[in-house]
Q: What sequence folds into this?
């Protein structure tokens, strides 16, 4: 088997094409990421972290009851507590429980919009 020496620019161009192809495949075939939605705070219980949001965009989320979504707020350390009427940017997910589907919990991740 003989040695094959390619000029450096050709090797670099090939590497760039491979990286670009990998990125494009990842974007097209990769998992969908949740979109952040803005809703209006209907109520918040600071003892239990139970947060209820309303709005047209809220209705599209899994676990929503009409245009209202209630769930447990998973917050970062120093984020401001929401008050009724605040605009709240969030993503939500359902945490499936082992016992029954009725025990599934809605988890809300987000913060008050400034």
A:
């Amino acid at each position: 088997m003989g040695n094959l020496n390619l000029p450096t620019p050709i090797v670099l161009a090939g590497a760039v094409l491979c990286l670009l192809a990998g990125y494009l495949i990842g974007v097209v075939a990769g998992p969908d990421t949740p979109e952040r939605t803005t809703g209006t705070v209907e109520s918040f219980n600071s003892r239990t972290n139970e947060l209820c949001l309303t709005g047209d965009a809220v209705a599209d989320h899994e676990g929503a009851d009409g245009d209202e979504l209630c769930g447990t707020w998973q917050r970062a350390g120093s984020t401001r507590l929401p008050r009724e009427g605040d605009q709240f940017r969030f993503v939500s997910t359902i945490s499936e429980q082992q016992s029954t589907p009725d025990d599934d919990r809605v988890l809300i991740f987000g913060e008050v919009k400034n």
